[in-house]
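Schema walk-through. Below, the input block comes first and the output block second. Nothing else is stored per chain. Lengths vary across the set, and this one has 407 residues.
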Amino acid sequence: MPRLRRSLLALAAIVATIALVAGCSGDSGSPGSGAPGSQESEATITFTPADLGAPVDPVRPITVDVTGGALTSVTLTNPDGKVIDGITTPDQTSWKPAEPLGYGKTYTLAAQAVDGRGIETTRDATFTTVTPNNQTRLYLTTTGGQPLADGGTYGVGLVVVAHFDEPIGDRAAAERAMTVTTTPPVQGSWFWVDDQDAHWRPQQYYAPGTTVSVDAKIYGVDLGDGLYGQQDEAVTFRIGDAHVSIADDNTKTVAVFENGQLVREMPTSMGMGGTETIGNTTLSFWTQPGVYTVMDKANPVIMDSSTYGLPINSRLGYKESINWATRISTDGIYLHELESSVWAQGNTNTSHGCLNLNPENAQWFFGFSVPGDVVEVRNTGGAPLEVWQNGDWGLTWDQWQAGSALG
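--- output ---
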């Protein structure tokens, strides 16, 4: 074969090879590409939020949707390479993570879909969740500070306390994240005692047998100034029999009712009244009038007057072990045994503010009571009981609702 002809044939082969390679190439990000004569898929994948350059919410981080087709695969992978479980709608058009994501982590997302002709399209993304400036832990407790027990039984005046271990800048955001549900339904509201404590109570005492569920979904919630909830908390409990005790200074007795029936009358000696000024502090010795609830109880309790500013070696000071003590206020009012004042019980007030009982009555009341039981103190002197002292029920319903961050 002549040399020129051989050269022309070789050149033709090279051109054909170049044309074949060019026919197989394309944009790797183009949907449906990858074969000679391929068509673009009619399926369109979208991510929400659309701007994945900004930090996303770890609780509602992202959804994947498709129009004009169906999802065939969605893979969300955390920084450790673990694939996050997801939930896909029955029609295969939408997907979301099945669990909250972590704070300050970078995830990769890969989605595939096909249109009605079976032509595939893909979309990938990388995004990062928000990084809190700080986190706060929430504790659901009684007014006595004890954790609410899941499945526990409490009194008809039980007040739910949501205690945060950091001050909350956005009380409204926190309140919106905390839901209280009761069976049967009752009207209730949160009341912010301070920046770290919100109390919830119904308009009236619960009915016995009511079930109460508290669900605080604060994880992923910005509670103000970049402070985020550390984790969700939830508890369900029930309300037991209606225990309402009436301590009346006119009769100097405590009448105890169970479900509206009088079950015991106990002579008592309450606060002697008057005040004492120690340094710059004025101490009151009244049993303040108001609606208290049982907070907790212990046997015995060491009662020490120096804990509230009255020196042990002063004229009215004391430190002693007291049996069968049921606490009803944050500043140390108890119904408790005091055998030395039995002579005064029923006729004379001699205490520093507590309600003294004889040994038998004190032990019985101790065993009878549960947190949330109601103790109403009537006809005594001194200033009315305040909310911070465990006087939540002393506010009218309008006053209580005014303490909500949601108005």
